[in-house]
Design a protein that fits this description.
The chain is mostly helical. The protein is about 70% helix and about 0% strand. Strand 1 and strand 2 form a beta hairpin. Helix 18 runs parallel beside helix 21, helix 22 packs parallel to helix 24 and helix 23 crosses helix 25.
Length: about 500
Amino acid sequence: MEGSNKRKREDMEQENGVDFGVDLSLLEAVEKSEGTVQVMDVRALKKMVLAFERRLRDNLEARMKYVDHPDKFADSELELHEELVRLKALAGAPELYPELVHQSAIPSIVGLLTHENTDIAVDVVGLIQDLTDEDVVEDSDEAAQVLVDALVENNTLELLIQNLARLDEGDPDESAAVYSTLATIENMVEVRPAVSESVCEKTKLLRWLLTRIKPREFDSNKQYATEILAILLQSSAANQRRLGQMNGVDTVLQAVALYKSRDPKSGDEEEMVENLFDCLCSLVMPVENKERFVKAEGVELMIIIMKQKKSAYGSAMRALDFAMTKFPPACERFVDVLGLKTLFAAFMDGLSRGSRKDRLLSKFVENEFEKVDRLMELYIRYADRVKAEIERMDQLQLDDLELDDDERYNRKLESGLYTLQLIAVILGHLWYSEHQKMRARIELLLRQQRLSKENVKAILQEYHENIGDLDGPDEKERTQTKIQKFIDAM
């Protein structure tokens, strides 16, 4: 979930006879207004709001008067439905949203999410989704923010999630309303990113999403639930911790485990699996969730997925990367359960006695240093890319286009310098081990390319000088000290 994770859904899949991409109430509104052209301005908006408020009042009065005779307030309910459909026309004029808020219509609209007639609540969900749709508000940021702020202030998030609990996904219309509710949450987060934390703090959305991703069967609502969960987790440490406390790590691992030995059956199902791994990667960022991941045997599960070499292969490697970063217990578990064997099989594209360090080094020695050879192939490939970029920048300077040092360094990073630096760090590790035959192999391979270890040292030195302090000054100093040891050894 790197920019916005929001995916445009221009083609919704059809399920249970319901086309999730077509809002039938919009077609209904078009039919009712056929032959008339209405200019949407402040005057028209006020007229629509007054008509809506009148129908709402009539319905409430009829319900109170004829509590035990639904047939006597059915007409007022139909008229209220029609007014809600007409309000969707406001989506064509998002610049009027501040006026809609000023007219105090939001509390009345949002309040209908608790209406006894579920169909009316479904109408409101569809209305709010249309008003907040990304394509509608993309050129009206300020107006959209005013609307979303008003929705939040009037407890829309809480009421939307409460309404989810009474929707029956066995009913096509209510299943579509579940989808619309998730779309509305996504829309509101897009307009106001802070909503991603407030909706999890104020409501039981995270709990609902965890429950929704548990069923073994695939459907479009389950897919969308995984996407919303990934969005809520991607940039919020608070949400990551909340979900961890709800046994979320174990639940997501169970959902992922369904694909340890089989591939998704469709493109949509494949997207859902990727969403699950996105959730897992975000989820294991806090240390306490890394501990839960290890305890739940997440390391072992990822290795099993990698061994099966199904479509989730690369995603499992990515999840391990997140789980093991700056967390030695996960790294130790990975080595102890023979994860190196599986990892190096991937490294070559397709345990034994001694310390973990010895096991690691032995992998580079076996089969006549084939992994060292592969490492040097990668080193040369990325060194050539960086060299080509340097030559391009030098040509720009000859053409009187000046580049400052930061811009030159960033361009080198974009061309592959960071990958080259990581390869050089691995070479530094191997050299620092003082394994004479491995050192000889590295020097031989460098000479064959008319290079020397001085070239590797230069890459390491540049890396050493540009290590940032994002993880704090202590971590920066520790990393620089380690890299300096490699440089000195070479």
